[in-house]
Amino acid sequence: MLDKTKLPDTLPGLRDRIDEIDQKIQQLINERAMCAQKVADVKIAEQGEEAVVFYRPEREAQVLRRVMERNEGPLENEEMAKVFRQIMSSCLALEKPMRIAFLGPAGTFTQQAAQKHFGKSIVSAPMAAIDEVFREVESGAANYGVVPVENSTEGVVNHTLDSFRSSRLKICGEVEERIHHHLLVSPNINADDVTHIYSHQQALAQCRAWLDRYWPHAERVSVSSNAEAARLASEAGRNGKAVAAIAGEIACELYGLEKVSSNIEDHPENTTRFLIIGLQDVPASGSDKTSLLISAKNEPGALYRLLEAFERHSVDMTRLETRPSLLSKWGYIFYIDCVGHYSDDACKAVISELRDRASEVKVLGSYPIAVL
C-alpha cells in the first residue's frame, strides 16, 4: 500500500522525488519495450514472419484487467488502464505497427474509439463507409477495422449488422466510448457572432434541448459527419465567417478549433459501442462475449425455442436485434449477444441446440468484454 507519510514535506524535496520516480518509470518502460521486441523475435523464429500474429486481444484484455485490479489510487482504475494501454500500444508498434481501418473521415468518434482500444501508436486508415472498412480488412490491407454497432440513445447501426451476413470477418473485440459533444469555433471567431452550427444529424438530435435553450436563433446545418462539420468550421473561420461545429475532442484537436461549450449532449450517459473486426478467432480471456447471427425457421414458436436454449443452459443473453433476411418475404435474421466464450461448455451446448432448431447459425466471434 502506498504511504503518503514517506514522501518529502517540502516543494523542492517533492520535485526531486518526482524526478527520481520519472527516471525509474522511463527505465522500466524501455525494459518493457525490449521485452516486446524479444517477444517478436521469438514469435518469428517459431512461426515464421508471415504467420505471426502480434496483436492478441485476449492477452491485452487480461493485462488491463490486472492493472485495474491491483490499482491502489489515487488515479482512477480507468485512468491507470489508459496509461498502460498507450505503453502497450507503443511497445506493440516496435513489433509491427498496425494499420486500423475505421469509419471516417479523420476526427470522428470512430477514430477516437480506435485510439482508445489500440492506443495512438497505430496507422489510421479512414474509410468513407462501413462496407469499405469490412473490405479493407478482408483484403488484408488493414490489420483490423473499427465500426459502430449501437448507440445508447439512437439504437442499433443496421449497416454494421447487415455487413456481417456475407463477410468472413470475426468480431475480435469491443470498445465503448462515452459520446461528449462540444460546441467549437475557429480561434479568430467571436462566438457571439455565430449564425450557423454544423454537425451530423445525430449529433444535432442528441444536443437538441441544449441548442434550443442556448442557441435558438442559430441555423442548424446537417453534414455528413461531425469531423466534416469541424473541417467546415475551421475553413469558414479562416475566411472570417462566424460558423460553429458540434464535434468531439479529436476533431477539435485535429482542426485547431476552440471550445465554446463542453459536454453539451442532452443525455450525459450517451455512449456508443464499437466492434473490432478482424480475420482471426480470439481465444478465451476469462471475461468474454459471443455474438451470433441466426436465421430462424418460419414456423410457430421458432423464436421461443431459440431463446429457451439460453435460459436452460443459464447463458446470459445481453442483446437481441431483428433484421429482414432479404431472402424471403417476411423472413428475419436475429443478431444475439451473450456472455461467455464459444469454447465454454454452456455456450457450446446453446450453439449446438441452436443449430438443430434454426435454418442457419453463424458465430460472428467470441471476444473480451470491453475493458475501457
From TrEMBL:
What this protein catalyses is: chorismate = prephenate; prephenate + H(+) = 3-phenylpyruvate + CO2 + H2O
Protein name per the record: Bifunctional chorismate mutase/prephenate dehydratase
| Coiled-coil intervals, chain numbering | 11-38
Q: Which domain of life is it from?
A: Bacteria
What is the annotated localization of this protein?
A: Cytoplasm
The UniProt entry's GO biological process terms, in alphabetical order, are: chorismate metabolic process; L-phenylalanine biosynthetic process
Q: What is its EC number?
A: 4.2.1.51, 5.4.99.5
What region holds the Chorismate mutase domain?
5-99
For this UniProt record, the keywords arranged alphabetically read as follows: Amino-acid biosynthesis, Aromatic amino acid biosynthesis, Coiled coil, Cytoplasm, Isomerase, Lyase, Multifunctional enzyme, Phenylalanine biosynthesis
List the Gene3D superfamilies: 3.30.70.260, Chorismate mutase (1.20.59.10), Periplasmic binding protein-like II (3.40.190.10)
> Mind telling me which Pfam families this protein's record contains?
CM_2 (PF01817), PDT (PF00800)
Tell me, in a sentence or two, what this protein's role is: Catalyzes the Claisen rearrangement of chorismate to prephenate and the decarboxylation/dehydration of prephenate to phenylpyruvate.
Recorded hits in PROSITE patterns, A to Z, give: ACT, CHORISMATE_MUT_2, PREPHENATE_DEHYDR_1, PREPHENATE_DEHYDR_2, PREPHENATE_DEHYDR_3
- One GO molecular function term? prephenate dehydratase activity
User: What GO cellular component is one of the record's annotations?
Assistant: cytoplasm
